[in-house]
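Re: coenzyme A structure - here you go.
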Amino acid sequence: MKPANTNSTPISIDGKTFNIRSGDDPEMLEQIKSLDDQYIGIHYPLTMEQLKAIAHKDGLLIALHQNKLAGYSLILFEPIDKQHSFASDEAMLYGTTVKKEFRHLGLGSALATMQEIKAKNKGIKKLKLTVRPENAAAVLMRLKNNFQINDFESNYFGDESPRFVMEKNIIESSEKPAKPVNHRASLALTPDQKPSQTTLTMLAMAFSVGMKVQAYYPESDQVIRLLLG
Ligand SMILES: CC(C)(COP(=O)(O)OP(=O)(O)OC[C@H]1O[C@@H](n2cnc3c(N)ncnc32)[C@H](O)[C@@H]1OP(=O)(O)O)[C@@H](O)C(=O)NCCC(=O)NCCS
């Protein structure tokens, strides 16, 4: 297999410089795996073999601050196990984590944007991702980055845990944007709090009858309100 390209791109956010690069050096992969285990792997584990395979297929971006890991982002250009399926002109964002001390600076969004540019250059037309509904920080980051919540699946990965399926078309389309529909329901998500059974049931019902998230807004520092119609 070809070694991953290790050229790095410096970006400056809030007076801090981050170097963004790909790479597959074993020591860095160990650090990324342990960061992933802490936040994402506890819900859906990533094996070292899968991480290596993603890195070798150009799906890993690493953010370094003063030569130390600050965050990473993973994208799949092809499925890595039978739980994921997507078309050949689609790619799946597979997890982004930013170390606590570097959050709220825009680094997570910057990593996602760089993955998006890479995907566009490979001819990818649509990005997909799944996210737990209680992970409101990630839901809001993706909504801010123009992803739409297109589905809600109660058992997407077969782990009995619900996921939003979020998607973004990344090629310019000549289609007119759909007319906004009046919302018929609304519900609130709170970061790091498991949604109530009522909220989960309501989401499942709304998506099963073809309702979509039409709009959202941060209701307070702690609550995101989704409008469904
Ligand atoms: C989700 C995560 C990657 C966001 O990283 P980040 O670098 O802090 O994100 P950004 O600074 O780019 O945030 C972009 C927007 O997302 C929203 N957001 C991010 N964190 C939030 C939080 N804790 N609560 C509410 N909104 C949040 C905000 O709208 C923010 O924009 P603003 O700063 O202008 O208000 C980070 O919280 C993280 O590493 N979480 C643990 C791992 C994880 O769950 N990853 C997602 C799985 S895919």
